[in-house]
What does this fold into?
Amino acid sequence: MTVPTTGRRERKKAATRQKIADTALRLFLEHGYDAVGIRDVAAEADVAVTTLFSHFASKEALVFERDDDFEQRLTRAVTDRAPDEPLIPALRREIHALVRHCVADDAAPIWGMIVASPALREYEESMRLRHAQSLAEALIASPGLSRSATACRTIARFVIDAYALAREAGDPQAAVDEIFEMIEAAWKAAGQAPNGPRNGRSGAGG
It folds into this structure.
């Protein structure tokens, strides 16, 4: 059976992206984030600088190479869930998965590097804002949720910030559950507010 050219091309592209990200992270951890430049990463990964920038928009993005994947998983938790599946538990599952990734033993040096770098902290904050905006747009566009745009934007920010708060807790997974109890209460309250639901009644995701 002949493998489609598009499939091979996409796999090769994904492999190149992962190779660049892995190389960058290794160099950053070995030599320090500020001591390693884009050209150093490209040379070590054996790719052109232009190739590197075709996969990553900035040096900071090399550290957060799962940024797009996480954002897509969150929005799909809204758009791809079954009609009768409650919204908040679906989002909680994704935050639990992210927190497990962030608190794994091999992630500790990476977060130490992020905390020590103003540029990386600033990038992470802008990344969270982008994720919150994308999640809010998915919530607003979902026809069955019946919440105001303000409520959707607020809940989106709560969800995105939940993982940062949980990551710093003594028991991160328990913290996620505690935070999401408050998020679910806020989401239900938004559905009961006089001017909250867009169609005047609580939606399927309430």
